[in-house]
Amino acid sequence: LEIVGVNELGGQVLVPADGSIQAGKLGSNSVTLAKLDTTGTASASTYLSGTMAWTAISSEDSVKVLSKAANYTILDTDVDDVGTLYVLVDASAATRTITLPAPADYNGVVIKVIASVAPGTGYSVIVNNSGGSEIWTCYAIGDFYTGISDGTSNIKADGKVSVRGKIYSSVNQTPTGRAYVKTTYDTSKYDVGGWGDLTNNRINVAFDCMISVMSVVQAENQGHPTIYVDGTNWLDTHDSSYESSGYQREVTFVQKVLASETPIEMYYFVDYAGVRTMRGGEYKIYAAWEVLERI
User: Fold this and answer.
1) Is residue 66 within 8 Å of residue 81, measured between CB atoms?
2) Distance between terminal CA atoms of the chain?
3) In 3-state terms, what secondary structure has residue 77?
């Protein structure tokens, strides 16, 4: 303590020495900004860092959310001073298209387009580049596209796409003669993505992908399912040594298939000269597929 004088009663007047006041002795709001040993300027766009410097808030830390139920082109102003832009899209009433800005206009910004509401039957959320070309399509709630720009290109950082379906034959089929016979279908159980084609009895691949396809046939005597891609037999596993009479046979096909190689068609190898019955039913003659990854 320092003695600074004598009061009217003859007592000494004492004040704390510089730097000796404890925090508990300070009243609420008693320290003004001017008393803080800081650098920089305090404002709505700065924060006081651990170095006691008023520091600008980085745009990398900021998030913006847009909700859209119509076609929308992302504007330059949507990504100004933004680290991540979320676009939540409702395609329940119609297909919606979200168009990205030119890469130069969102350099370093992450854009995530999400199907936030289940698309209606036959509808989807399409993500286009600034030139109007499709780069991603969301078919189910929760599907999304995440991209970032390096200033010159759109770069996909992550994404989810749901494409799956099942078609089956409700009636018997009776092929004759030893041959590869195309399996036909008349009923769609489900078809997320709309790739099932009952008219032509095939799966139409809309984009390059890793896909899993299962073909199941219950038939009499010798025979086995096989898979054709773009008119070529890609999976021929028939073997007369195990093609015995009257049970259900299946093959599972997991391959990279390009959109240019579509369609995928299911055939059955009949290894018998006479008439054979392929028994119809949802669980007897069917094909089921699911996209594992868009490439």
Assistant:
1) no
2) 76
3) helix
- CA 250 to each of CA 102, 152, 164: distance values in angstroms, whole numbers, following the listed order: 48, 48, 18
Residue 142 sits at the vertex; the CA angle it makes with 141 and 147, to the nearest 5 degrees, is 130
Determine the average pLDDT of the residues in 33-58: 76
DSSP 107-159: BT-EEEEEEEEPPPTT--EEEE-TTS-EEEEE-STT-EEEEEE-SSSEEEEEE
Q: What span, in angstroms and rounded, lies between the C-alpha atoms of 196 and 288?
A: 9
CA distances from 66 to 70, 116, 160, 162, 235 (A): 12, 11, 19, 23, 46
Q: List pLDDT tens digits, range 122-138.
A: 999 999 999 999 999 99
- In the predicted model, is pLDDT for residue 159 greater than 90? yes
**Rounded Cα–Cα distance for residues 176 and 238 (Å):** 17
With contact defined as beta carbons under 8 Å apart, do 33 and 42 qualify?
Answer: yes
Run of H or E residues at 95: none
Question: Nearest 5°: phi and psi at 35?
Answer: -85, -10
pLDDT of residue 237: 59
d(CA 294, CA 162): 10
Query: What is the pTM (predicted TM-score) of this model?
Result: 0.77
Q: Is residue 2 predicted with pLDDT exceeding 60?
A: no
pLDDT > 80? residue 18: no
Give the tokens for residue 286: 């069917």
Specify the range with the lowest mean pLDDT, choosing from 7-16, 102-111, 208-217.
7-16
CA 18 to chain centre: 62
